[in-house]
């Protein structure tokens, strides 16, 4: 169920968004507020949290989550409206991966220890656009704190959640290794790869840019169920198509290699978000230095 949204202006001069959860969505509000309550979550690529409140609306209670407001809306809508240059892509994809890397990390940028968090519902409608081309992760309704003191039993019912379209094969198959907290990060990396593919599909360095499509958009209906996704992703080992013309641009080829490594069938073979973030730093640095004439990632 989509929660209700209001946006209004406060006198402090900052646009804020109010996400209103009805009573039935209390658990989701509670979880999202608890995730945001950790000050170590603060990062440029993570939605800025302001406060959470319980409100009385008539006889009913409702629950508010107040955050920064981003007028450009979510990434899916942005990509349907805009075509990206290579530079735009680098900014967008780079900010997304740095957000996921921070979420998964044991440390903050300043080196203090933090509890890693798995988002568990990474998709283009759970990412907002800030300052034109930067991504911000939002919707922590089913995010999970990967507290090392918790046991596999604590995570027992945590295996199969999220959105079927973006679910990793091991999630579709209900074969997540709950003994290892890295498993939750590996699922996020798979979903992140699908979003990176969405971003790549709208970048004009590949030549003609087709109209925006969700991952598996030509194969499934609007809200595919797990059964359908199991057939495609698990049994058929299907992934979104990477047409050969995308590989003509060297930077794009490097990105596509990265995407392919992130959606590997074997969760353990996937790159970590941290490693992907480092690759993006490399692409940006090399691009700045060489204007992408003949960058050293060419094999
Ligand atoms: N802070 C925000 N600023 C602008 N739009 C937002 C903001 N947060 C959410 N939205 C919009 O509302 C949609 C749903 O938000 P989300 O947090 O994902 O709620 P839900 O739990 O209902 O999926 C997003 O896809 C986006 O379009
Ligand atoms: Mg959402």
UniProtKB/TrEMBL annotation:
SUPFAM superfamilies: Protein kinase-like (PK-like) (SSF56112). Keywords: ATP-binding, Kinase, Magnesium, Manganese, Membrane, Metal-binding, Nucleotide-binding, Receptor, Serine/threonine-protein kinase, Signal, Transferase, Transmembrane, Transmembrane helix. GO terms for molecular function: ATP binding; metal ion binding; transmembrane receptor protein serine/threonine kinase activity. One of its GO terms (cellular component) is plasma membrane. Residues 1-283 form the Protein kinase domain. Its main location: membrane. It comes from the Eukaryota. Its EC number is 2.7.11.30. It is an enzyme of class 2 (transferase). Its cofactor is Mg(2+); Mn(2+). It catalyses: L-threonyl-[receptor-protein] + ATP = O-phospho-L-threonyl-[receptor-protein] + ADP + H(+). It is a single-pass type I membrane protein. It is found in: Membrane. This is Serine/threonine-protein kinase receptor. It comes from Salvator merianae (Argentine black and white tegu).
């Amino acid at each position: 169920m989509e929660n209700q949204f209001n946006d209004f202006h406060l006198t402090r001069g900052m646009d804020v968004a109010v996400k209103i959860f009805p009573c039935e969505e209390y658990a989701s509000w509670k979880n999202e507020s608890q995730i945001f309550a950790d000050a170590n979550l603060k990062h440029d690529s993570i939605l800025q949290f302001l406060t959470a409140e319980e409100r009385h609306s008539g006889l009913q209670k409702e629950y508010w989550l107040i955050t920064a407001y981003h007028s450009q809306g979510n990434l899916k809508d942005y990509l349907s409206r805009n075509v990206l240059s290579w530079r735009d892509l680098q900014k967008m994809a780079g900010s997304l991966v740095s957000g996921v890397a921070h979420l998964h990390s044991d440390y903050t940028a300043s080196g203090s220890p933090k509890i890693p968090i798995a988002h568990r519902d990474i998709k283009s409608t759970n990412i907002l656009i800030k300052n034109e081309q930067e991504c911000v992760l939002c919707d922590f309704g089913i995010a999970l704190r990967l507290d090392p003191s918790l046991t596999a039993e604590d995570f027992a019912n945590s295996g199969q959640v999220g959105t079927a379209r973006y679910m990793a094969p091991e999630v579709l198959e209900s074969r997540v290794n709950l003994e290892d907290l890295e498993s939750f990060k590996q699922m996020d990396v798979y979903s992140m790869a699908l979003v990176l593919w969405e971003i790549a599909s709208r970048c004009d360095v590949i030549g003609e840019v087709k109209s925006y499509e969700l991952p598996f958009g030509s194969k499934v209906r609007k809200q595919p169920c797990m059964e359908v996704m199991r057939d495609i992703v698990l049994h058929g080992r299907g992934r979104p198509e990477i047409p050969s013309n995308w590989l003509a641009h060297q930077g794009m080829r490097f990105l596509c290699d990265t995407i392919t490594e992130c959606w590997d069938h074997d969760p353990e073979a996937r790159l970590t978000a941290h490693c992907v973030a480092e690759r993006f730093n490399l692409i940006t640095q090399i691009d700045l230095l060489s204007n992408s004439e003949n960058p050293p990632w060419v094999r």
